[in-house]
Specification:
Chains A, B: This is Xyloglucan 6-xylosyltransferase 2. Chains A, B: It comes from Citrus sinensis (Sweet orange). 2 copies of one chain form a homodimer. Helix content of chain A is 38%, strand content 11%. Chain A is of the alpha/beta class. Chain A is globular. In chain A, a hairpin with a 2-residue loop joins strand 1 and strand 2.
Chain lengths: 459, 459
Amino acid sequence: MIERCLGAQRSRKFHRALRQCKVTALCLVLTVVVLRGIIGAGEFGTPEKDFYEIRNRLYFPSRKRGGDPHRVLEERRATSSSFATHDRNHYKNNYDEFNVKMFMEDNGEDDEKPDPNEPYSRGPKISNWDAQRAQWLNENPDFANFINKKPRVLLVTGSSPKACENPVGDHYLLKSIKNKIDYCRVHGLEIFYSTALLDAEMAGFWAKLPLIRNLLLGHPEVEFLWWMDSDAMFTDMTFEVPWERYKDYNLVMHGWNEMVYDQKNWIGLNTGSFLLRNCQWSLDILDAWAPMGPKGKVRDDAGKKLTKELKDRPAFEADDQSAMVYSLATERDKWGDKVYLESEYYLHVNWAILVDRYEEMIEKYRPGLGDHRWPLVTHFVGCKPCAKFGDNLAERCLRQMDRAFTFGDNQILRTYGFTHKSLASGRVKRVRNETRNPLEVKDKNFKPVQSQARTMDTV
Amino acid sequence: MIERCLGAQRSRKFHRALRQCKVTALCLVLTVVVLRGIIGAGEFGTPEKDFYEIRNRLYFPSRKRGGDPHRVLEERRATSSSFATHDRNHYKNNYDEFNVKMFMEDNGEDDEKPDPNEPYSRGPKISNWDAQRAQWLNENPDFANFINKKPRVLLVTGSSPKACENPVGDHYLLKSIKNKIDYCRVHGLEIFYSTALLDAEMAGFWAKLPLIRNLLLGHPEVEFLWWMDSDAMFTDMTFEVPWERYKDYNLVMHGWNEMVYDQKNWIGLNTGSFLLRNCQWSLDILDAWAPMGPKGKVRDDAGKKLTKELKDRPAFEADDQSAMVYSLATERDKWGDKVYLESEYYLHVNWAILVDRYEEMIEKYRPGLGDHRWPLVTHFVGCKPCAKFGDNLAERCLRQMDRAFTFGDNQILRTYGFTHKSLASGRVKRVRNETRNPLEVKDKNFKPVQSQARTMDTV
C-alpha cells in the first residue's frame, strides 16, 4: 500500500528509513532500560529497586522475588539524639542534616504477620526476680555476678537473619562486630549477637526488648546487660565504664535530665547504647516500655501520641527511644531515681558531631578519655548501611564508618606493633621493630584489665 | 569532497545514511557495554569484574578503581582435606565434586607488591620464648595460662579488610563469626578476629602465619591458640575439646598418621582448624613452615615441589596445608612427637560428607559427641562464599551453610526456649513456655562450663 501511495523508489527509501529507525529505536530502548537499572536517576522511579531486582534475577535466580525484607534488630533512626557534651549549639545547627524521613522508612520490619486479634503478651509476670536470682547466685558461686568488685557484663547486639539489601551492608556489620569483639576482649565483657526475631509483633527497633528480657532471665550471672546498636562502634578501646558510679542505678543512658524531664525532648536520651541491671526493676521497666511497640495500629497510634507529647518529634510510628523519654518524663517518680542520664563521657555520640576530628584527636589527645576528646562509642545514626542506598548521605556514612573503625582498630593493632597506613586504609604497616624480647616492650602506659569469669551458657 | 565525488543529491543521501549509521552504532556500542557489565556472559571476558567496576564507579566514586582485590586471611581450598572418620570411601567418591580449579583461583591475594629484591624476613629469631614467657607469667599471676586445669585459649579467625566480591559473602562471614562468638562464650574462649594483612608477602592462605606468631608473642597468657577458618562453623555447641589429652603435645590437627607420614597425602591433615601451644617449639615450627609461603617465584616453585612430593596433590602454588604435610613427613623425628593428628572427633570435617544428615543427627543423637554423629566443626572447604560465584556449587554451598549455621544456632536458642522453624529458616519459634520461675527450668542435662579469666590485651 505504501508503494502504491509513494511510488516504488520512494517506497524503498521509506522502508529503508523505517528499518534504520527501528534499529535506532530498539537500541535506544535497550540502552534506556539497562541504564535505568544501573544508574538509577530519580526520574526513573525506584531505580535502586530495579538494580537489585536485576542483580537478584541474574545472580540469585532461586531467591524469592520482590526485594529483600527490611532489617530487624537494628536501631534505625536519623535522630540527632546526641548533644555534644560541649557543643549543643553545634548540634542544633546540624539537626537538619539528618534526614528524619530515612528514619521513618525501612524501620527493620520482618515480614512476619502477627495475628491482629491476639492481644500482645509479654509472658507471665515475674514479681520476685531478685529473690530467684539471689538464690541461684548463692547456689552457683562459680558464676558470681561481681568479680573483684566489677560487675559481670554481657554486651548484646544483633542484626537481621537475612542478608542486607545493600551489598556492602553486611561488610559494615562484620566490621562493627569485629570492633565490639576487640573492646570486649580487652575489657572482659561477654557478647551475645542476635540474628533471631523472638517476637513478631516487636519487630524493628522494638526487637531488642524481648531479646533483652530473655537474656536477663537466661543469664542470672550477668549483672549488667549492655545493649549496643549494630551501627555503633567503639572508638576508645581503653576507656573503662565507671561501674562504681552506677552502683545505685539500674539503667544508664547517654542524655540530659533537663532535656528529658523538663523539655520531654525526643532526643533527650539515646537508646542505641545503654546499660541495664539484671533485676526486678529492669523487668518492670521493660514491661512499662513495651506497650507502644506492637506493630500495626498500636504502634501507629502510639506514634501520634508521642509526636504530640514530645518536643520536636516528627510524625512517625512509635520508636523505643521516644517511648522511653515519654515513660521517664511522665513517671519520673516511679523510675527516675534509678535512671542515670550520663553526659560526662560518650556512652554514645552522634557521628556527625566529631568524625571529621579524628586526626585532631590523635594529635592532641589519647585513648582512655571516653568523651568529646576521644569518644567511647561513635554511633552512626541515620546511616543504615544495611538498607538500600537513598542519597548522598550513604557515601559519607560509609567513608566515615571506615574511619571510625580504623580509628578504633589502630588502638588494638598498636599493641602488636602495627597501625593502619591511614584512617581511610585497610592496609597496615609496622610501627615498632620486632625484637628478641617482645615482653619487655609491652606498652607500659596502660594497665592490664581485670579478669572476668565467663557466663554460664548451659548448652 | 564527497559532494564533488558523488554529486549533491547522493551526497545528501550519503550524509543522512551516515548520520543514521552513527546513531545506530552508538546505541549498539552503549548497549553492548552496559549489557556486558550486567549480564556477564562468558564470551565477554571477565564480566563480573565489569559489573563491579560499573557498580563501584556509580555508587562509590571515591573508591579506588581496578576491581576488588582478592581475599586475604581466609582459607581457600577446594581440598577434600578431611576423611570421614568412619567413611573414607564415601569421601573418595566425592573427591571430584570439589573444584580444585576454584582453589587455585582467587587465593585471597592482597594487591600489595612486595619488593622482589628483599629477602623474606620473619623478624629476629627468638630462642628463649619459654623462659621469657615463664617469667612474665610469674610476674602476672592475674593472667594465669591455666584456670582450674583448663588452658587459656584464644580462638583466631579473620577475613579481608575489603568487602567480598560476592554480595552475600560478607553475610556468611557475619553468620560465621556470630557462630564462633556463641561457642566461645559457652566454652570460655577469647576471640581475635583479624582484618589486617600483617605481611604482604604472606598473603592468601599463608596470612595466618605472621598473624599467629604476633598473637602468640602478644599474648603470653594464652596457652593455646585455636586457628579457625572463616568458612568453618561450630556445629556442636556442647562438645568440649579434651585439653588433657594434649598435655604433651603442641600442635593438634584433624588427620591421620598413616596418611601423612606413610602416604604423604596432601589431605592427610587439615589446617583449617588447629590448636597451637604458645611455646618455643611452636615459634620454631612456624619458622619451618613459612619458607614456602612468600608469594611469587618462591611459592610457585614450592608448589611444584609439593605436587611432586605429595600424594594426589594437583598442580598449583604452595599452600600452607601441603607445606605442613611435607614438613611433618620429611622431618618426623624433629616435629612428630609433639604433633597430635586427631581423628576421634571432628576438629574439622568436610561439609560435603555430612551436611545432608543434620536431620538424622537430630533424630538419633545429641550435642556433645563432636564426631560423625554430631560434628564439632563443619568446614565448608571449596565454597568460598566471599569470592565471585563460579558455578552450581555456590548455590549448594550457601544453602548448606545456612543449614549448618541454623543447626548450631538451635543449640544456643534452645537454652532460651526457642528454635528455628526449620534448618532452612531464619525465623524462630518458642519451644518452651514462659514461666514465672525461669531458673527452675534451666536445662539440667548439661553442666555449666568452667570460668576462664580474660586475656590481657593492654590497650
